[in-house]
Amino acid sequence: MADADWDSRMGRRLKLRDLQILSGVVHWGSMAKAASHLAMSQPAVSESIASLEAALGVRLLDRSTRGVEPTRYAQALLARGRVAFDALRQGIRDIEFLADPTVGEVSVACGDTVAAGLLPAVIDRLSRHRPNIAVRVIQSSAETPEYRELRERRIDLAVARISGPPAPEDLALEILFEDPHRIVAGAGTAWARRRKLTLADLAGEPWIFPANRVIRELVAEAFARCGLPLPREKVTSNSILLRNQLLATGRFLTVLPASVLRYNAKPWALKALPVELGVKPRSVGILTLPNRTLSPVVEVFLQHLRAVAKTMANDPGEPPISGRDARS
Fold it and tell me: Residue 84 needs a FRET pair 20 to 30 A away by CA distance; which of 166, 202, 218, 230 works?
C-alpha cells in the first residue's frame, strides 16, 4: 500500500533534476545565480522549485531581500538527496570499472604532512600499476578538513593524522601506522654531525614551528619535561615546502613526522637529530563513511595505500636508501 501511494503521489512527480536545481539554489543562495551556473532561465528554476514544493506539500525555501535560505524541510530532503546522488555516481563508476578495470578516478583528502610524504609514494606506486586511474586530491592545512568533505560525500576517503579520540562516531577509521616526530636539521650542519644531543643543547637555536596547535603542545611538553621553556620560534608555518627550504639553508631546526622525513630527507638534504622528544606519536589512518560502498577503483587505491603504509610501519624512521626503493 505504501509503495502504491509513493508511486501515485511522489514517484512520478519527484525528479532528480529538480533535486539538483534545489541543491544549486541553496548552494548559491539565489535563484538567479543558480540559473546562471546551471545554464537555465530563472523562470525555469522557479518552476522547478514550485513543482517540488507542490509535490511535497511544504515550503522548501524562505525568500528575502538577501536571497533564499533552505527551510528545515529542504535541509532534510537535500541530506537524503546527497546520498542518492552519491549512490548513482558510485554506480556509474562501477559500470565504468566493469567496462574497463584499468580506468577510473579516486578522490582523497589529506593535510599537508600526508601530502608531503605518504600520498606521493602511493600515487607513484598506483600510477605504475594502473596508469589510467586518476587521483583527485583535496588538500588543506586545517586540522580536520577531511571530515567535512567526507560527510558531504565529495571525496571517497580521507587520509589523516589522528590525535586525541580515535575518530568521530559517524566515520570509520582504519589505522595504518604510528608516525613519530623527529627533530630535523640540514644534513650538512654541525647539529647533524653531533652523535649526542639533548633538548637543552638546542633550546637557544632558531626554530621553525608548525602553526598546528597539537604539534606545538607536544613539543612544549617535551621541553617542559626537561625543565625548559618552549624555544621562541623564528618562523611559524604549516607549509612543509617552506620548512624544507629553510632547513636546507642549515640555519634552522624543526619537528617533522617520520613519514615526511622518509621521503624528503634525500632530496632536501635533511637529517633527523639524535634527540628523543619522548612524546606519543600520532597515528595515520584512513577515514571513510561506514555505510558507503566503495567503488572497485577506490578499493584498488586502498590496496596500494596499505602496501606503502606497511613499509612505513616496519621502518618509519629512516628514509629510503634510493629512489628505486621508494617506488618499490
Answer: 166
Burial 180-197 (b: 16+ CB within 10 A, else e): bbbbbbbbebebbeeeeb
Task: Report which of 136, 143, 179, 141 is spatially closest to residue 157, judged by C-alpha positions.
Answer: 136
- What fold is seen in the domain 181-280? D-Maltodextrin-Binding Protein; domain 2 (3.40.190)
CATH of domain 101-179+283-326: 3.40.190.10
Report the Cα–Cα distance between both ends of the chain, in Å, rounded. 59
CB 100 within 8 A of CB 244: no
Q: How many angstroms separate the CA atoms of 280 and 287, rounded? A: 21
Predicted pLDDT at 328: 32
Cα torsion for 303, 307, 308, 309, to the nearest 10°?
Answer: 100
Environment class of 82 (CB within 10 Å of its CB; exposed 0-12, middle 13-18, buried 19+): middle
In percent, the amount of the chain with pLDDT more than 90 equals 41
Instruction: Name the DSSP class of 241.
Output: H
CA gap 204, 120 in Å, rounded: 35
